[in-house]
Design a protein that fits this description.
about 150 residues, 6-stranded antiparallel β-sheet, 4-stranded antiparallel β-sheet, about 0% helix
């Protein structure tokens, strides 16, 4: 039986192990930018009551053979203010690999309209990455969950 471990820190991205020390020549790579909406809170019953959510952000390399290079994973609030840049240097995501960022239910800085901006590079022939968020809460006897998918903006 699983116990409630809501006060534990989410798993780290182990970024030092993921630093992209060698990247293919820029002439061989396409760059893109993706917007992903996330919700740390949703309104409940009225605009005066909010419900907190746990957010899982999935960064997925959809290629069977090519590495994905992720340069930015920046978290913004409803007001458009930068909450946290998750990357200081470019990292890699191996073919078919998924990395996740977990935002605990108590972390509500993103509010009802938070989002991420991802900047990435892929081989010119590779499939574009997939960015998704899963929001969930299981307060009392009620469960609430939904997903959001990223949209390429550049």
């Amino acid at each position: 039986m699983e116990t409630n471990k809501s006060h534990e820190q989410p798993p780290s991205l182990h970024l030092k192990e993921r630093l992209a020390t060698t990247i293919e020549a820029d002439s061989l790579l396409n760059e893109g930018k993706t917007y992903l909406s996330i919700y740390s809170q949703v309104y409940s019953l009225s605009e005066h009551r909010k419900h907190n959510l746990t957010v899982t952000v999935s960064m997925r390399n959809t290629s069977l053979s090519d590495t994905l290079y992720l340069e930015k994973a920046d978290h913004y609030s409803t007001e458009g203010k930068l909450i946290k840049p998750y990357l200081e240097k470019t990292i890699f995501i191996a073919p078919m690999e998924t990395l996740e960022i977990v935002i605990n239910e108590q972390e509500i800085a993103g509010g009802t309209g938070g989002n991420f901006i991802f900047v990435w590079k892929i081989n010119k022939n590779a499939h574009e990455p997939l960015f998704e968020s899963v929001m969930i809460s299981t307060t009392s006897q009620q469960g609430l969950s939904f997903i959001s998918q990223g949209v390429r903006i550049e």
